[in-house]
Amino acid sequence: MMGNVVSLDSIFGLGELPPPGAAMATPVAASGCSSSSCGSSDGPADMDPAVWEKVKNHPCYSEEAHHYFARMHVAVAPACNIQCNYCNRKYDCSNESRPGVVSEKLTPDQAIRKILAVAQEIPQLSVIGIAGPGDSLAAAGRNTFATFEMLQRKAPDLKLCLSTNGLALPEHVDTIAQYNIDHVTITINMVDPEVGAGIYPWIFHKHKRWTGLDAAKILHEQQMLGLEMLTSRGILVKVNSVMIPGINDEHLLEVNKAVKSRGAFLHNIMPLISDPAHGTWFGLNGQRGPTAQELKVVQDACEGGAKLMRHCRQCRADAVGLLGEDRGEEFTADKIAAMEIADYDDEARRSYREHVEAERAGRHASKAAAQADVQDAVGAAVDPILIAVATKGGERINEHFGHAKEFQIYEVGLNGAKFVGHRRVDQYCEGGSGDADTLDGVLSAINDCTAVFVAKIGGCPSKSLADAGIEPVDRFAFDYIEESALAYFKDYAERLGQGAVCSRAGQDAVIRTGALTARRA
């Protein structure tokens, strides 16, 4: 089991995970947050200790945790009680990813066997979620709660999490609390039924089909009531909102205010996935998704309201692994049937969590020190910049440019370095050589960035990046992202003052939506 941990050089840089009891590199007590007011990047100094215990190892509720911990979605809830104009659950492609999509639907018994199989292979696993492929609470939530009831007995160390559209939520809040489900995600795209009527063609509520404004009004009332009931019981709620240009983009600020006033812990504003090939109403009727800059403008406008999550990957309903990867193909029904599943043992996960805890303690202090250094050295006239980072995880710059299938985007300035999003790309280097068309796609995805941090990069892509005004940087290879970004910003500010570099303000980039499905090498 521990062999699975030791192999994670992507998380702990070049070295192996030290044996239990060994000292980590100069760990010190945590002081301060992770240099950002962005909610999901808050640290233990920013919230009640009981809340921190709930979120610190949850990759969706903590941006820091998503570098270290894995989630697993089990597809036991196929029924849905609403229709969204951005959803078509019949589509499935092994190379694509979006909510509502699965390759295999499971019974609760099948789900438990799959969870136990994954748990013995992936010690980073910390959360089991049910997110469809329909709604987790449709059909009275029977499969959802049957799965969680068995899971509580068989794997009590794993956190339980569910996602819902909120229509049936109020009638199930007591059951959610009974099963100690600490985390619930509600998709709330509007608080004005006039806006909602353009998103939801129909709902099915109290044995009746509702359409138009009536449907949106009922859905809104149920969502707000369910949110209030959950937060009054101390259950953490993340609100997902799909940004749909021309329909609810300007309205999302009101959504943010409304969910904050009702106690939501996080607000996740996601770009619309709108590909005609998916067969959705929006996709077939030309409704576009937002650009990177449009999405960031709306997210930035919501800062100061409900705290924001910006590291969402819009995962499949059967996703497995770290955010930014999906190892589901390793755990298909036929492969699990052939596996020998041992008695449940959480020793490997406990050991892994202890090492991560020690690692984080030193991280919080080093981030704060790097930020203080920048504030002392850089004048207030220097605007923040965006940096793209090739990483496999562990908060380190540890991926080759040519092997990257996504870049994590950090905004760096006087207030620190904070994660603000990610950009999917096609892998530039396949079979030892690069592809020019793929490189153009990478450039368009990170066109708003001043620099790209990589563990290694070849001469050809390095020149193309430089010609596009994006500086390739490999001098921080295998170092921590935020400290490296702050050191770069300090140097950038000095060069900017000397006229050696120019600002890239005003650039925009292309968002390719969905989460990765291929396992990282």
TrEMBL record:
Keyword ATP-binding among UniProt keywords: no
Q: Where is the Radical SAM core domain?
A: 66-318
Q: Which PROSITE patterns match?
A: MOAA_NIFB_PQQE, RADICAL_SAM
Cofactor(s) needed? [4Fe-4S] cluster
Q: Which pathway does the record list?
A: Cofactor biosynthesis; Fe-Mo cofactor biosynthesis
Q: Which domain of life is it from?
A: Bacteria
| This protein's record includes keyword Lyase | yes
Database matches in InterPro entries: Aldolase_TIM, Di-Nase_FeMo-co_biosynth, DiNase_FeMo-co_biosyn_sf, MoaA_NifB_PqqE_Fe-S-bd_CS, Nase_CF_NifB, NifB_C, rSAM, rSAM_sf
- Which residues does UniProt call coiled coil? none
Q: Which UniProt keywords apply?
A: 4Fe-4S, Iron, Iron-sulfur, Lyase, Metal-binding, Nitrogen fixation, S-adenosyl-L-methionine
What protein family is recorded? Belongs to the radical SAM superfamily. NifB family.
Function summary: Involved in the biosynthesis of the iron-molybdenum cofactor (FeMo-co or M-cluster) found in the dinitrogenase enzyme of the nitrogenase complex in nitrogen-fixing microorganisms. NifB catalyzes the crucial step of radical SAM-dependent carbide insertion that occurs concomitant with the insertion of a 9th sulfur and the rearrangement/coupling of two [4Fe-4S] clusters into a [8Fe-9S-C] cluster, the precursor to the M-cluster.
Q: By what name is this protein known?
A: FeMo cofactor biosynthesis protein NifB
Biological source species = Azospirillum picis
Upper classification of the source organism reads:
Bacteria, Pseudomonadati, Pseudomonadota, Alphaproteobacteria, Rhodospirillales
